[in-house]
Amino acid sequence: MKNKKERLRAIIEIIKTNHIGNQFELCDKLAERGFNVTQATLSRDIKTLRITKVATDRGQYMYIVPDSNNLQNSLLMNHNQQIGFVSVDFSQNIAVIKTRNGYATGLAYDIDMSQSKEILGTIAGADTVFAIIREGVPRSAVLKLLSRFIPIDNQ
């Protein structure tokens, strides 16, 4: 019998490598790997891992693991092509990050969970994240932090 730790690792890998839109799809993928779980167990695992659902640009939904520093690779980048991130600009101590529709919430959550000293917090809409920058933090430090989550190239 496979243990919970192995199951949680499998869930993370499945979500990072597949577009999973609901618990039934995730349950099927887990069963293929030998994990037979109930919907209640799967719900608890999703909550434990802080997995969230975001809207895709096709009007569907997919799960993401927002507390992952690999969010850039798993969600915002697809074979080195940007699919979620649009731009970042600054106004005094606010970074305005534009994304495609549905990507802002997951990105804001990921930034918040990094618990950085540079960012006090974020506010997310459907396609925009406002990141409040701590007083005195240079933009270069903010861009360096954000490059963990979004493809920054000489902004």
Q: What is the first-to-last residue Cα distance?
A: 50 Å
Query: What proportion strand?
Result: 15-25%
Q: Biggest β-sheet, characterized? A: 4 strands, antiparallel
Can you list the strand order of the major beta sheet?
Answer: 5-6-8-7
Number of strands: 8
Range of helix content:
25-40%
Number of helices: 6
Rg is 17 Å
Alpha-beta content class? alpha+beta
Query: Rough shape?
Result: elongated
Elements, N to C (H/E)? HHHEEHEEEEHEEH
| Unreliable runs | 68-83
Quick check: average pLDDT?
A: 83
What's the helix and strand layout?
Blueprint: H1 4-17, H2 23-32, H3 39-48, E1 52-55, E2 61-64, H4 71-76, E3 77-78, E4 81-82, E5 85-91, E6 94-99, H5 104-113, E7 119-124, E8 128-133, H6 139-146
Keywords:
single chain, 155 residues, 4-stranded antiparallel sheet, two-stranded antiparallel ribbon
Describe the structure in brief:
This protein is an alpha+beta fold. 37% of the residues lie in helices and 24% in strands.
Can you give a write-up of this model?
The chain is α+β, with helices and mostly antiparallel strands and 155 residues long. It has helices at residues 4-17, 23-32, 39-48, 71-76, 104-113, 139-146; strands at residues 52-55, 61-64, 77-78, 81-82, 85-91, 94-99, 119-124, 128-133. The strands form three sheets. A four-stranded antiparallel beta sheet has the order 5-6-8-7, with helices on one face. Strands 1-2 form a two-stranded antiparallel sheet. The protein has a two-stranded antiparallel ribbon with strand order 3-4. A hairpin with a 3-residue loop joins β7 and β8. The radius of gyration is 17 Å and the shape is elongated. The termini are far apart. The relative contact order is 0.13.
